[in-house]
């Protein structure tokens, strides 16, 4: 929607309208994704259709589920179809990342986070924390491009746009998981698959946060 400008519509006005519809500002100044807007619902449908199509042609785009190598007809793919529970070291790394991101994980990370295919309330709270992070980072990135676009080099602007897109895609996946209990690519929801998804989500969020913070530094430097 952001890049598909209808005929006869000013591109800048179209993109501004998309941003204003998808993100609303709360009284305390925070930006949240408006999941009730029809545009969000349609985007979610496109997202689901895209993943269905990608599964058929063997491409994986989200959450670092990318093709790791391809040579001579041999493909090595990093997937989570048969996810294993995180080892102790990986679990500690995940907890450290979630602590830094200020996600409420202590009650959520238990063996009963998934019971009979249902996500526990503490885990849903953790997922909402992760969702809020994506909305906040995407909104900050869009605000930078709108208000401080002239500060950035071409490559910087490209990185911000890519980060915004990654956050928006991850926000859709998290909302889908919270509302429907379905992981990307409709992978079976288990304790192990959820832990692996959280690890990928936390890692991606940290990278996005670092990129946004570095760009904030460039904005501050330009004003000195």
Automatic annotation (TrEMBL):
Residues 200-224 are annotated as: Disordered. Residues 201-211 have a biased composition (Polar residues). This is Uncharacterized protein.
